[in-house]
Write a structure and sequence with these properties.
Strand content: under 5%
Oligomer: single chain
Distance between the termini: 80 Å
Largest sheet: none
Helix content: 55-70%
Number of domains: 1
Radius of gyration: 22 Å
Number of strands: 0
Structural class: mainly alpha
Order of helices and strands: HHH
Number of helices: 3
Length: 111
């Protein structure tokens, strides 16, 4: 197994940057699909828009746009982790979904 070393986008080759962008965009699209299945439409929409923004940067990232791409990738990775964790908690077997029944009470009379 190859050893992975952390590198900034500046230190990556154009092909590596392109692969990183594709990986994060695909992860966002996957989490968007999962959120949509579970009825979290706002998270699905946000993940989709972020994925499209990353894809919109193109594969040949110019030096002057690397910082913007870096921020989008950071946001994308954080968003995938956040939504995935929330969906896992909400749909785990230990999650208790409590429905409170509305009980009508007699109005209080002040004397």
């Amino acid at each position: 197994m190859a050893t992975m070393t952390a590198r900034t986008l500046n230190e990556m080759t154009p092909a590596q940057r392109s692969d990183m962008m594709l990986l994060v965009a695909q992860a966002l699209e996957n989490v968007a699909e999962e959120a949509d299945v579970h009825g979290d439409y706002q998270s699905a929409q946000n993940a989709t828009y972020l994925a499209l923004s990353i894809r919109g940067c193109g594969t040949g990232v110019a030096a002057e746009t690397i910082k913007a791409v870096e921020i989008l990738l950071e946001q994308g990775i954080s968003y995938v982790a956040s939504v995935s964790e929330r969906l896992e908690q909400v749909h785990s077997p230990t999650h208790v979904n409590v429905d409170f029944e509305c009980v009508e009470e007699e109005p209080l009379t002040l004397h």
